[in-house]
Amino acid sequence: MTNIGRVWVWLVILAVQLGFQVEARDKQPLQVLVGMSKPPYIQIETSDGFELELLREVVQRMGYRAEFTHVPNKRIQTLLQQGIGDIATLQPMSANEPELFYSCPYIRYQNVVITLEADALSIVQLSDLKDLSVLAFQNASQLLGDEYRSAVENSYKYRETVEQSSQVESLLRKRVQALVMDVNIFNYHNDKIVPLQQVTIHPLFPASYYRAAFRKVEDAKAFDQALKSLFQDEKYLLLQERYRINAQSLVELACEGNR
């Protein structure tokens, strides 16, 4: 392609993006129900994070401006069903409320077991956690399946917490032997600790893909179309790099398989 051709391509792309922005300013914003602070995905104080910026971009490509309302994850779907908000985020693949319409998956979380490398613990299956002191994220025993629940439910050494930064601190201070949490959340908090501690990642859980829910089928279809355009844009890769989010490229494959 000649230099003139490249200039025209970039001008067309710029015009489309400006069109999205102008159209978004002329419409009422969409109220997006999202969870509480969970860096690097959601950072309420600065209104950014990988998930917020991804959703903001998708909603803009739908022709709207996103306004975020932060509520506990358990309340997100209920509020949408009560007529509050326009988009309910972080809906599991298993969600199937008949009065709601669901998008393709838009984000991927990857829970893992994390131990200190120096401890040299052998953890190859979930039952290996039974005799260990484990600190997991809140509601992990309800979300990670029957095998995990049976491994930890009778252990007096098992705890859950909403403060995920304290999980990392507890491991590094050897107050617990293992963590159960999303690998990107762990990396975010661990990267802030000096000196950096060497850990072992035990990938015992399948990835968790999440969708958005809507009261109107046309909104779900518009979200999917905007999401697909973002997946094909370099901006998506740059967003992953900015927040050091791993393997989000697999979300597009999950979306294709969900159509």
Ranges where pLDDT stays below 50 over 5 or more residues in a row are: none
CATH hierarchy: architecture of the largest domain: 3-Layer(aba) Sandwich
User: What is the H level of CATH, i.e. the homologous superfamily of the largest domain?
Assistant: Periplasmic binding protein-like II
Based on secondary structure, the structural category is alpha/beta
The count of DSSP E runs of length 2 or more, i.e. the number of strands, is 11
Under CATH at level 1, the class of the largest domain stands as Alpha Beta
- Residues in β-strands, percent: 15-25%
Coarse morphology: globular
Compute the number of structural domains: 2
- N-to-C span: 35 Å
Radius of gyration: 20 Å
Please, what is the average pLDDT? 89
Give me the strand/helix succession: HEHEHEEEEEHHEHEHEEHHH
